[in-house]
Write a structure and sequence with these properties.
The structure is a single chain. With 675 residues, the protein is mostly helical. 60% of the residues lie in helices and 6% in strands. The protein has two domains: 18-386, no CATH class; 441-575 and 601-629 and 651-674, 3-Layer(aba) Sandwich (Rossmann fold). The strands form three sheets. It has a six-stranded mixed beta sheet, with helices on both faces. Helix 2 runs antiparallel to helix 3, helix 3 crosses helix 12 (269-282) and helix 7 (147-175) runs antiparallel to helix 8. The relative contact order is 0.10.
Length: 675
């Protein structure tokens, strides 16, 4: 009796409803939305949510095991289905509709494949398969990309109760306590954390999106639930301090993470640890713990609608430029956050609560599973149907089987400036235009530090007696098909020496992907110069994207090194930059393709630096090929010329248009080889 009186008040601290968790849920979703819309550079919100999910689900399962010795899988899965499936299905289908109406038709099928993956709860593995960079900001993000975390949670909801039932049964049978459960969870946390750290270094997409590298965060929550009875007996002052320190740790470490931080790895440990500390401290229900600020009407509301806010904000953010017709301005970020919050609230009260609290679905779990399964199957079926419907390209641009001519002299460019409607020939080629990129030549990736000659670097006439080297970045590589044909015609070997984002000219470049000086370019460039010197080529063609970092001294050093190889030098000016994804633009403006044609003044990047590079090239005896007349006329750079789509993305020319320029380029190469 005495023991009961002493421990009862402490046991009462384990509350069924945890206001601090509701508040922490609100903090987590605000972290996620703030980071995604670009209002605040804070990471780790999803990691906090994973811990919360693990703790809540673990508490339910462990309490049921403790009370009955088993788990009703039908009730557990029915609760999950009622809570998640209706809202998920609604957003998946709504996103498909928005994508159909507003997004580029050329991206629609990729989006629907992503939607199908999301409906079936394996979007995270699709992103692993495609090697997606979560922080990419190049217009390629899918409106379904955020479903990766939901996929991990749903996979967890399938496996967790089965694993806990088996482990709890063994633990009771062998030890008559929960020791084996604790050991099992510790092993899961340790093993998964190890994979997170090691795979982040070797395969970042696999570590970021893979279930195996994230499950430790969810398992930490279950381990915390297992320890909750012990934690509830904590000294109240200590519990309060722990919860405040946890909140500071979660937010503080989240602010220290940047886009350059290798994620997940060790970095997410801060937000995870902070969430664990907040929840652990709250187990003792301290009066002056962090829930003093975590719970209030605002955070209570945000916590309630957090699931819907997570689902809605990302597709609106990705599709907003297509919906509004302009790039995302800073004010648009607040509009996206606000509109998605409103949609989340509407969905919570009109959809989520109806399914969660439906008496029939609660009373009969199989009905809940059936209702959720029907919603999921309906969304998946809708995505499957959408994959086979004709693309939403204007009927006025009826495809035909004609052949695109491409460049046919200056008149073809001037005529293209006046063209309004996409021709049938161009419309027929449009769906494949994003893949119409060079088939010949090699290009090294960002992380490559040394140029190494490979078989695919040699094109043209591989047995030719003359050698032409084409050196530059991706704007040199894009000419691969043209130089292949030129090499075959002139019986010359063509060696491509190219590295993405790396100018042949010797100056420091800041790589936007790395957000630092591109040191890999410096070492690669030097090795390329050495290899070219060994080749003793007859002609070296230099072409690359113009950059504002360019210096005259750097250009001098590069052209001197190439001149010393004994080759005749040709400097080919850079191609215009349309500034938008051309195939996407054409697909949405088939009746007025002039909307996709940039002004020449805007399309020619850094004209002063271009002029400087050309001056230095001439000083070293280089012959200049000015390609601008083949791309621009009357102050406009058309994106379709003689039925040939000029660009396959926002920067690079198609292989088809490059080949049409062979007659434009070849005479200069022929003359250089003759000398």
């Amino acid at each position: 009796m005495t023991h009961h009186r002493a421990t009862a008040p402490r046991a009462d601290r384990l509350r069924k409803y945890r206001p601090d968790i509701q508040g922490l849920r609100a903090v987590a979703i605000m972290m996620v939305v703030s980071m995604h819309v670009g209002v605040l550079d804070i990471h780790g919100g999803v990691d906090v949510s994973f811990v919360l999910s693990g703790f809540l689900i673990g508490s339910q399962l462990l309490a049921e095991i403790e009370k009955t010795g088993r788990v009703s899988l039908s009730k557990f899965w029915a609760r999950r289905m009622r809570r998640l499936a209706p809202g998920t299905a609604l957003v998946i289908v709504a996103t498909a509709v928005l994508s159909w109406v507003y997004a580029s038709p050329l991206r629609f099928r990729d989006h629907m494949t992503d939607g199908l993956s999301s409906a079936l709860s394996f979007m995270n593995w699709r992103l692993v398969e495609t090697g997606t960079d979560y922080f990419a900001n190049d217009g390629t993000q899918s409106p379904y990309q955020h479903f990766w975390s939901l996929g991990i949670e749903e996979q967890f909801y399938v496996a967790a109760p089965l694993a806990l039932i088996a482990t709890a049964w063994l633990s009771r049978s062998l030890f008559r306590n929960r020791a084996l459960v604790a050991l099992f969870l510790l092993a899961v946390v340790g093993g998964s954390l190890y994979l997170s750290v090691t795979q982040t270094a070797s395969n970042q997409p696999l570590a970021y999106f893979g279930t195996q590298a994230r499950i430790w965060e969810l398992a930490s929550g279950i381990l915390l639930a297992l320890a909750a009875p012990f934690l509830s007996r904590m000294n109240l002052a200590l519990a309060a301090v722990l919860s405040w320190a946890g909140l500071a740790t979660a937010i503080g470490t989240a602010l220290l993470i940047t886009k350059e931080t290798p994620l997940p790895g060790y970095a997410v440990g801060g937000p995870v640890l902070g969430a664990v500390m907040v929840i652990a401290g709250g187990c003792a229900a301290p009066r002056y713990g962090a829930e003093v600020i975590l719970i209030n009407p605002v955070t209570d509301f945000i916590g309630n609608v957090s699931f819907g806010w997570y689902l809605w904000h990302w597709p609106l953010l990705i599709l907003w430029p297509d919906i509004t017709g302009h790039e995302l301005a800073y004010s648009d970020r607040y509009r996206v956050a606000s509109l998605s919050l409103i949609l989340a609230a509407v969905m919570y009260y009109s959809v989520e609560l109806r399914f969660r609290n439906n008496k029939q679905l609660v009373a009969k779990p199989w009905k809940g599973i059936f209702a959720g399964g029907t919603a999921t199957a309906g969304a998946a079926a809708a995505m499957a149907v959408a994959l086979v419907v004709p693309l939403n390209i204007s009927a006025s641009a009826v495809a035909s089987n004609g052949t695109a001519a491409g460049y046919r002299g200056a008149d073809s460019v001037r005529s293209a400036v006046l063209q309004k409607q996409l021709s049938g020939v161009a419309a027929g080629a449009l769906p494949n235009s994003p893949e119409d990129r060079t088939h010949f030549g090699c290009i090294d990736n960002t992380d490559v530090k040394t140029f190494v000659m490979r078989d695919n670097c040699v094109v043209g006439d591989r047995q030719g007696k003359s050698t032409i080297v084409v050196m530059g970045d991706s704007h040199a590589w894009q000419w691969g098909d043209a130089f292949h044909e030129i090499g075959r015609s002139l019986h010359a070997r063509v060696v491509t020496v190219a590295k993405g984002g790396c100018s042949p000219e010797v100056y420091a470049i800041k790589n936007p992907e790395l957000d630092r000086e591109y040191s890999e370019c410096d070492s690669w460039r030097q090795s390329a110069f050495e290899e070219i010197d060994k080749l003793r080529p007859d002609v070296v063609v230099i072409t690359n994207r113009s950059r504002q970092e360019a210096t005259e001294d750097g250009a001098e050093e590069a052209f001197q090194a190439l001149e010393d190889s004994g080759a005749a030098l040709i400097y080919m000016t850079d191609t215009p930059q349309p500034g938008k994804n051309v195939p996407d633009c054409l697909a949405t403006h088939t009746r007025d393709i002039s909307a996709c044609n940039p002004e020449q003044q805007a399309a020619i990047e850094f004209p002063d630096f271009r002029a400087m590079e050309q001056k230095v090239a001439v000083r070293h005896g280089a012959v200049v090929i000015d390609v601008l007349p083949a791309f621009c006329a009357n102050g406009v750079c058309p994106t379709v010329i003689s039925d040939q789509i000029v660009y396959f993305d926002s920067s690079h020319i198609t292989a088809g248009y490059a080949k049409s320029l062979v007659p434009f380029i070849q005479p200069t190469l022929k003359k250089a080889l003759a000398h």
